[in-house]
Amino acid sequence: MDIKKILLTGSTVAALAFVVACSDDSSSGPKNEDPASSASIDQPTSSDGTTPTSNGTETGSSSSATEPDEHLSSSMDASVTNMVITEIMYNAPDASELEWVEVAIAAGPDLKSMAFYKLRLEGAITYSFPAEPLAKGEYVVVTNNVELFKETYPTFTGRLFGPWDNDPSTGTVAKLSNEGDVIDVKLTGNGDVSCSYSKEPPWPSLANGKGRTLVYKGGNAALPSSWGASKILKGNPGVGNDEWLTTSNVRINEIMPTLTGQNAWVELYNAGTENVDVTGWQFESKVRNETLTIKSGIVPAGSYLVLDAASDFSEELIVSPIGGAYYLYGATEGDESSLFLPSSELSSGVVDLADGSMAQGALTTATPGAINTNLYIGPVVINEIHYHPIDDNANDVEFLELKNTSATPITLYEKVKTTNKGWKVEGINMDFTSSDILPANGLAVLFPESLSTAVGEAGLRTRYSIASDVLVKFYKGKLSNRGEMIAVKKPFDFSDDPTSPSGIQWFYNWSDATLYSDGWKGENFAKTDGFGYSLQRKDYSTMGYEASAWVAAEPTPGK
């Protein structure tokens, strides 16, 4: 399969809501006029009149660039250089520390000098590319360890850069978290890309330390199903047209936990046009570390099969209400479906959205053998998102606003067993403390940590006329200008996990979530992408994944 024939064609693909993925922006901001195609900008040169070729980073020999397929740029502004991340190795096999990402131009002009346009990686890792050219159809690799990369891929002949920058907190080369993170590709002008990855469902498990890389498949790049596990062991760095392991049309559609007097059950859905025999397929519970076999069963085309936990598996299936990851494995390698259950006694499953994508979470009503309905929503909701303020307006800053929709105050700090743990907002690296209380029907406004010292809480309250009963807090992360997953989570339980840096795995009840996008269509949504408007919630009946749950208007932090 040719990746260049399907990248960014605008096709709708399924997404699951527990993950953010990679999204590009070619709709706003100044266009970057390439020196190679514009006489108004001169290409920088060195003192001897030649084009600079190095800034001290490691580079390999240049591979010949292949001509990009015309479909690659069909949905993009051809006058703008649009970047793309095409492959990620975030957890190499055999406990290797090797990590790398593959970067290419998705559409638009070549770059005569990457440094001239400040082409760089930001987010989970940082790296600035040297003053070398980059052509369409060429795939370059950036790694954390140049020598280890060469040892691992001795036949690699492409262009290699690295290592990426040190982590300021450790003083050593930064590391991609095995849990998941965000990687941004930035350049002057337009055409940035923001990508995410995760070890949790629905990301392919074979990319998590099992020998495969994540390969970008195309389609809506803000959706997790835009990525697959590489068909080639250890991936294929520096080469396009990568293939990935395909999956069947059968998915885990809903799971009911084991409750007093009630067996668990698992519902499968077949989105294909032919019946699928799942006899002998494997069903894995990560939280219990056990894999069971489906005794027998056929999932009809376009319909459902409900498996009873006590009778339809090789052993009784126990589904804990604390949640966790569950996987269904087909007959061929890489054929898997997965579902991550939040902590809840409700069933959890997949809900089809109006745009043709999907979200997943706890459901308000169990629907075995039928289409799923609304996602459960808790009392603390995401109320306003100002993700891309006006770039040249220092008083226009990003923020996230939460709302308590209940009539009682909520302390955003829980005692779980013998341990205290704060609620968190995933996507901006925000954890609440013991003093954080959200008043009844009240608001909390969350600002970037950089504003804590630059402006301060008092200054922000004055600037935006935020009342004293509105909670003001600061977060460590950053809202993506392209779109990402934001979730409000309440701690529910924990267990020992020797693979986690903390030695503990926490399980959360999800209160609300959204996968916002700068590509949402509709009146005024374009104005939220750097033109002064924010996303503001208008529907609290279900989690905020649908664009229809939001309106675009002038920001109102704390109002």
How would the blueprint of this fold be written?
Elements: E1 23-24, E2 82-89, E3 100-107, E4 120-123, E5 127-128, E6 140-143, H1 146-152, E7 160-161, E8 180-186, E9 193-198, E10 214-216, E11 227-229, E12 250-256, E13 265-270, E14 276-277, E15 282-285, E16 290-293, E17 298-299, E18 304-308, E19 324-329, E20 336-341, E21 348-352, E22 358-362, E23 380-386, E24 399-404, E25 410-411, E26 413-416, E27 419-422, E28 424-426, E29 430-431, E30 437-438, E31 443-448, H2 450-454, H3 456-464, E32 471-475, E33 485-496, E34 504-515, E35 534-537, E36 550-553
Parallel strand pairs: 6-7, 31-32
Antiparallel strand pairs: 1-9, 2-3, 2-10, 3-6, 4-5, 4-8, 8-9, 10-11, 12-13, 12-21, 13-18, 14-17, 15-16, 15-19, 19-20, 21-22, 23-24, 23-35, 24-31, 25-30, 26-27, 28-29, 28-33, 33-34, 35-36
Quick tags:
559 residues, mainly beta, Immunoglobulin-like, 3 domains, 3 helices, 31% strand, disordered N terminus
General description of the model:
This protein is mainly beta and 559 residues long. It folds into 3 domains: 1-245, no CATH class; 250-362, Immunoglobulin-like; 380-553, no CATH class. 4% of the residues lie in helices and 31% in strands. The protein contains 3 helices and 36 strands. It has helices at residues 146-152, 450-454, 456-464; strands at 23-24, 82-89, 100-107, 120-123, 127-128, 140-143, 160-161, 180-186, 193-198, 214-216, 227-229, 250-256, 265-270, 276-277, 282-285, 290-293, 298-299, 304-308, 324-329, 336-341, 348-352, 358-362, 380-386, 399-404, 410-411, 413-416, 419-422, 424-426, 430-431, 437-438, 443-448, 471-475, 485-496, 504-515, 534-537, 550-553. Strands 7-6-3-2-10-11 form a 6-stranded mixed β-sheet, with no helix packed on it. Strand 19 and strand 20 form a beta hairpin. The longest helix has 9 residues, at 456-464. The chain is globular. Residues 1-74 have low confidence and may be disordered.
